[in-house]
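notes to self, project folder thing:

trying the whole complex as one job this time. last attempt i did each chain seperately and stitching them together was a nightmare. two parts in total, labels are on each line so i dont mix them up again. if this works i'll redo the older ones the same way
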Amino acid sequence: MSRTFDAADKSAGTTRRRFLRGSAAAAGGTVLGAGASVAAGTDNLPPNIPEWMKAPGEPTGGQLYGAPSSFEKGVVKNISKTLKQYISASSRTPLQELDGIITPNGLFYERHHGGVPTIDPAQHRLMLHGLVERPLIFTMDDLRRFPSESRVHFLECSGNPGYSKPYGKTASDLLGLVSCAEWTGVSLKLVLQEAGLKPEAKWVVAEGADAAALTRSIPIEKCLEDAMLVYSQNGERLRPQQGYPLPGFEGNMSVKWLRRLHVTAEPVYSREETSKYTDLLPDGTAREFSFYMEAKSIITRPSGGQRLGAPGVHEITGIAWSGHGKIARVEVSVDEGKSWQSAQLQEPVLTRALTRFRLPWRWEGKPAVIQSRAIDETGYVQPTLSELLAVRGENYFYHNNAIWPWRIAADGEVTNALA
Amino acid sequence: MSRTFDAADKSAGTTRRRFLRGSAAAAGGTVLGAGASVAAGTDNLPPNIPEWMKAPGEPTGGQLYGAPSSFEKGVVKNISKTLKQYISASSRTPLQELDGIITPNGLFYERHHGGVPTIDPAQHRLMLHGLVERPLIFTMDDLRRFPSESRVHFLECSGNPGYSKPYGKTASDLLGLVSCAEWTGVSLKLVLQEAGLKPEAKWVVAEGADAAALTRSIPIEKCLEDAMLVYSQNGERLRPQQGYPLPGFEGNMSVKWLRRLHVTAEPVYSREETSKYTDLLPDGTAREFSFYMEAKSIITRPSGGQRLGAPGVHEITGIAWSGHGKIARVEVSVDEGKSWQSAQLQEPVLTRALTRFRLPWRWEGKPAVIQSRAIDETGYVQPTLSELLAVRGENYFYHNNAIWPWRIAADGEVTNALA
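result (full assembly):
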């Protein structure tokens, strides 16, 4: 039984202010005057009362820690089902399913070298020693006593995408090893000052409390500039996958489950600085200690694995970021790179945070190639894959920040234009 | 078996730069030179290797949608165990456990009048009708076709705390019906323009698709100013508790599971605008359509139910917010309101978002009363409870934005100074 609503104005045409035009199916809503056809076979939809209005819903607080709708059960971390092992492995954020700049903690990407340790925060300790006046051991409570600060930053695997070759079906396959959160912790500078740095202190070697004892050397300048010992992520304590309970190390060399900071005069050349995380160049030398992630961007909608429903206006949206500071501009091309136009950036644009960009686009229903390129506040422009290959050769794996175009077929299917 | 570390410098004293001083237990870490006593009974702690470094941890992607550490299982929504029913009820955010300004989706507060409906997004429809040129019915896909925008805003129950009398043990008991997220959706203005407003359109009546069919009238000015139809929260789709899949209505009258927007010339005086959400004044009249939440703040650490560990420097931190825009200043008193000092505000300060404030404080180990007051960009100053009662009398329930002081006992125990 339908409820009575206002009669539809069947004669109302389009107005100058209407955003979405085109076929009825592509318009921004169905005209209510066409209700006879809309309602056919949809007896439980408006204007009728849907089933879920006819009885009380689930009780309040039924989930003391909430979860997404059961209809969103496909929106999960992206992890290959065919790995040989899942201890040194990664899971990717489903970028193409997300909006805005904050990554929910449940979908934050993971990369572990020795699995995820189960650490009792009451038992966890952080030791700070080496070239300091006063070596210290901190409990978690000690660290919570320091003045805190919060900042929104991205975190990214240097192997994102980790291939110099065309690869991947979806935005997540390609660049899902990046996520963004509001981090809270204590300034590392404050903690180092508590111990007192000796004049010859030039590096801080950070070691994690996982089975891999992941170890990285960080220049003292970075430690004193903006590094944080992080204990919270989007308001709540870090998830174990991001290093609970520890101090994670903010920045591009986040050492999780941090247990040791060794202040030294030289980098330690740890396993993670020799066998990994360097880039082999064509002349046989390797780029090393390349900490900063260069400017990068990706269109997340429409993107690989999705399908445009109908010709007409669609929003092109995606994310851009740079380890060197703020994103100054994102340009989008819808004609295979022949011309570029500036997208709108979501405000406020934050330093070293994901920056959401958006551009309305009228798709004519013909094949097209769309792509984005980021320009950061230093003026650096995200390169094409061929530009990157010309400089680095084909043996490098990390620090790939190429433009990744998407191909849209006449039927709306979106695929990786380089794969 | 201990690993070898650098010998501690037992003679190192305090330096001018040290932040934390006081007794050994209160200092920012234990001097490593006192290692003999630190290590006693803690054979699995640094400098020894903890158990969780001796074997691989949990596999990557073991949780396809992640959850907090098992050691955080007490950090959940705050809901009374003794309610008569849980259909029209609320759960509160554990403010005292959170940092920064973003509330994780799993801990977002809930308030439902008819339980949480389980809505299939493919079946959900939004009808826009009344004083418009062209009534429309939208699918979720239709709404996703519009240009999107994202903004960080708080959402708050007008009954937060919902008592004119002193009440509550913890910050969550008192003011836990407020949370903050990055919302993504479509500008309501754009959607109304798609339908075309008639000149006599002055109100929009919003109806939810829950068993309560919660209904509110919203002035057209607000709808055209900054209202959004929201479908995402902190990156992912809204949780059912916040109105999935629907358009939630951004602002202080968020109608969840939105199914109907009826454009009218007058407010509808719905149940929610007459029996609820008005404030009975001493002269027998009622404040009605009081949409804007006035400036408010609360210290979340130290706060009721917590205990200061030892005298020395502690950080006082909390949140402030205003429905009228940005927080301009937060002042903190540690002497029962005799004097006030400005706290540091977390940047960037965002319009109608939670604003984190922080102030280092040296607690001398004596009884103290601490409190905060917010001043927003309009110059409005958060009042004391007695100031509020003098104006409103004792019969009002909603829109209580009084200052709530905390009492700290000599043993460090923190309690509500007004309860």
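what i see at first glance: Chain B touches chain A through 145 residues (CB under 8 Å).
need to look closer tmrw
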